[in-house]
Amino acid sequence: MAVEFRDRAWFVGDAKRDLVKRLGDRGIALVHADELLSETFPSKNPRAEGAVHKVLPISLDVTSKEFALVRIHRRTGFESRRLSEAEIARWRDRLVSIASQLDDGAPIFVFWGTEHANTPLVNGMHLQQALAGSPGIVVARPAVDGSRPKIKVGISRYFEVLGITRGAKKDEGGRGGGDPS
Description:
The protein has helices spanning 13-26, 37-40, 85-100, 119-131, 154-162; strands at residues 2-3, 29-30, 32-33, 68-72, 108-112. By secondary structure, it is of the alpha/beta class. Helix 3 crosses helix 4.
């Protein structure tokens, strides 16, 4: 399971230390996301044509050793949705740092928060190229057979974290089968 906190108050002082500890104790991943000042605090930096869109500090605290989830988003305009070489290099360095804190072979899922034209494909291709040969990073491509990573995420991980086991219902004769409970 992964959670993203959009309220910046979670990332200050004691609140951040407590958040990281609580999530880490439960193995819940903290989403690593970039936020723009102009969209997080619109009244302090209103969106205006030609305005500088400052990226707020990104939390790189790893709270699950099993996987990490990164969300790169919050771009405006046309060309500004494509990451610059400098931004790609910063994300490469961040991903290497995150990978060094995960279990060996644990995946990092990267999601792109823009669907403008082919921007996610272009950004993803540039990031893959930048990561090639980075220590602790293997760039995976989707399997041709459609297989998925062998990792508990989503609802399976949620139930595991809560200590809830899901079993099969028994039929009238006491045999297993039927729908999961």
